[in-house]
């Protein structure tokens, strides 16, 4: 027997993987599946960024780099935080990681002691609890009720904070709910955190550029004078620049925390890929970067509006309108207890499995995000696919009645 580390028992197998594996198998078998599962833009990386990567290779940027990254990228990220977010980080307060995911994992490892609690809202991005547990922490989940647009209130936050609370983690706009907090709502949460100086904040701002219907984005660390010194701000190129495969993420924060993360990275993976670094800086500094992001944002805004309107027109489905990211998160619980073929629908997983099997639409069950009553649909796909998929969902709901 191959003996594994005890810590592997802490990490759960994704229960939603079965649905995506089945969808892929069906596609391979030539079945026309409408995929609403993808958590990535359907657009290609803007050409000028790809050209910069080709130039980086031609110029020999193929060797080891400093652990945080080349100084040019650090400077570009610091300038971006100052310009776009009003966060006065200096280059030495910046580091990078292999995507937002790796940045978050390194930060949990650097900050959490055994038994420390991380308070965070649900529905949540699937990797948070797993990363927290691996780093020795305990997730303490505060439910964002659908009736409140999946957002937690200051009162709920206050009640969740206890003597072991080390981190408050906030993700706005959110995956999977597609909902963003307004500046006032965030300020109310910041006021609570301000009263607890021992708490560190992780603000996952990776969807900051994808906001809709006039929604105003603010960075959490700007909301109270005491927060800058105890907040880590996370961002990445994955979603805004359609660069998921490049694995470029970054963190701004207090220097001691950034130094600790650099120490970790230097012993783990040394640094992110050398020839992605200057192109990543170009994406932030070249005006074509902001233009490309805005073009994609406009498309997402139209698609999100359309998808949520079509979803809420379906019988017994509720779905708050997405104000950010590229997800709709409808409630399908009115159909629990219905039977189709030999399957009884009891939760989002069985709903998603039956929908895929019967009408060939792939959605992500909310179970891994703490919501067994909801499914996530990504609108990072064409209007035609959105219409085709929602038509099929309508037929499926009619069938199960
Ligand atoms: C809320 C949230 N944070 C972090 C990440 C990780 O992003 P990356 O692909 O850059 O690792 C994702 C990706 O889906 C996400 O949705």
Could you list some keywords that capture this structure?
401 residues, alpha/beta, 7-stranded mixed β-sheet, 3-stranded antiparallel β-sheet, 12 helices, 40% helix, binds pyridoxal-5'-phosphate
Low-confidence stretches: none
Question: What class would the helix/strand composition place it in?
Answer: alpha/beta
The bound ligands are: pyridoxal-5'-phosphate
Q: Note the gap between the termini.
A: 49 Å
Order of helices and strands: HEHHEHEHEHEHEEEHHHEEEHEEEH
Biggest sheet features: 7 strands, mixed
Rg, nearest Å: 21 Å
Could you tell me the number of beta strands? 14
Enumerate the strands of the largest sheet in spatial order, edge to edge or round the barrel.
Answer: 2-8-7-6-5-3-4
Number of helices: 12
Dominant shape: globular
> Approximately how much helix is present in the residues?
40-55%
Average of pLDDT:
96
Strand content: 5-15%
Explain what this protein looks like in three dimensions.
The protein is of the alpha/beta class. Helix content is 40%, strand content 13%. It has twelve helices and 14 strands. It has a seven-stranded mixed β-sheet with strand order 2-8-7-6-5-3-4, sandwiched between helices. A three-stranded antiparallel β-sheet has the order 9-14-13, covered by helices on one side. α4 (99-111) crosses α8 (255-268), α6 runs parallel beside α7 and α9 crosses α10 (287-312). Residues 39, 99-101, 125, 171, 175, 204, 206, 236, 238, 244, 249 line the site of pyridoxal-5'-phosphate. Pyridoxal-5'-phosphate (PLP) binds next to α4.
